[in-house]
Amino acid sequence: GQISVLARDQHGCRFLQRKFDEEGAKAVDLCYDEIIAEAVELMMDPFGNYLVQKLIECCSDEQRSGVLRAVSVVKDDSLDGLPELVTIALNTHGTRAVQKLIEMLNSPEEVSLATNALRPGVVTLIKDLNGNHVIQRCLQRLSSEDNQFIYDAAKVHCVEIATHRHGCCVLQRCIDHAIDEQRRPLVLEIASQALVLSQDPFGNYVVQYILDLGLSWANGEVMTQLLGNYAELSMQKFSSNVVEKCLKLADASLEKNRNTVVREIMQSPLLDRLLMDPYGNYVVQSTLTVTKGVLHTELVERIRPHLPLIKNSPFGKRILRLLLEN
């Protein structure tokens, strides 16, 4: 009758964990009913979560399924209508217990219980300091098929997730763990939103990540989406990095796209501003580095009239030095 009280105490919790190690199934059976009755609260307790983790490791498959069922319900007084497992996963202590639960899933029934409980809150979890680790553990431990609920949400809520501090990291891990049938639609969705994402403090990293994958069709789509905006994007802190990456792509099949970007920049009425801009000057430097032949000559001729203007600019001097070297 005192198991849940002991579980919330540092020394009591350690005592019970030790008993699980020493006496195995016998100790688990004695404590199981009392722990399961307060599983939700214990998983979010500073000490109780460790006991639940130990229980999940030591218990039978049937008992583990019982834990899952206990934490997969939606409370009658729940304001958000989310299963308890989502609430636990959002908690500082609970996230560790849920990750342990995912690690120990041992049957299709258990996986189904867990994924069905997480599904309604997947976007909330992805964007949460604690919850995002639970989704990442799913990506690491479950099959591609079982993780489909994550990919469905990531595609539908791509911009919302990519422009979030934690979400942008999870989206990159989604790409890492995906099979081709999941990766292609997700990458295509990200590429189609490149103009919005490139200008975002977090979204720009997601666009750069897919550019680094070396997929010609995806890179071509990103570059197409940015057309008509390259000069403006070059003068923004985050998007200028994306423009530079587009210019430096090594794929020979994208040379036509790259030349289009260079022409748009050098023919822009904003060229004089670009030459002296803290971010834009680096883009112009990249255009000088990646071009050759007739296009390079034309680029130099476009810059030449602005030389008197940029001589006294700290950023312009870099371009001047690059022109002299060439």
What does this structure look like?
One of its GO terms (cellular component) is cytoplasm. InterPro entries: ARM-like, ARM-type_fold, PUM-HD, Pumilio_RNA-bd, Pumilio_RNA-bd_rpt. Keywords: Repeat. One of its GO terms (biological process) is post-transcriptional regulation of gene expression. It holds the Pfam family PUF. The structure is a single chain. The protein is mainly alpha-helical and 326 residues long. Among the domains are: 120 residues, no CATH class; 99 residues, no CATH class. It is 72% helix and 0% strand. The chain has 26 helices and no strands. Helix 2 packs parallel to helix 5, helix 5 runs parallel beside helix 8 and helix 21 runs parallel beside helix 24. The model has no long low-confidence stretch (mean pLDDT 94).
Essential attributes:
elongated, mainly alpha, PUM-HD domain-containing protein, 326 residues, mRNA binding
In short:
This protein is an all-alpha fold. Helices cover 72% and strands 0% of the residues. Among the domains are: 120 residues, no CATH class; 99 residues, no CATH class.
Anisotropy-based shape: elongated
Order of helices and strands: HHHHHHHHHHHHHHHHHHHHHHHHHH
Mean pLDDT: 94
Label the structural class: mainly alpha
Q: So how many helices?
A: 26
Biggest beta sheet attributes? none
Helical amount? over 70%
Using only CA atoms, what is the Rg?
A: 27 Å
Strand content: under 5%
How many β-strand runs? 0
Low-confidence stretches at least 5 residues in length (pLDDT < 50)?
Answer: none
End-to-end span in angstroms?
83 Å
Function: Sequence-specific RNA-binding protein that regulates translation and mRNA stability by binding the 3'-UTR of target mRNAs.
GO molecular function: mRNA binding
Keywords: Repeat
Pfam family, one: PUF
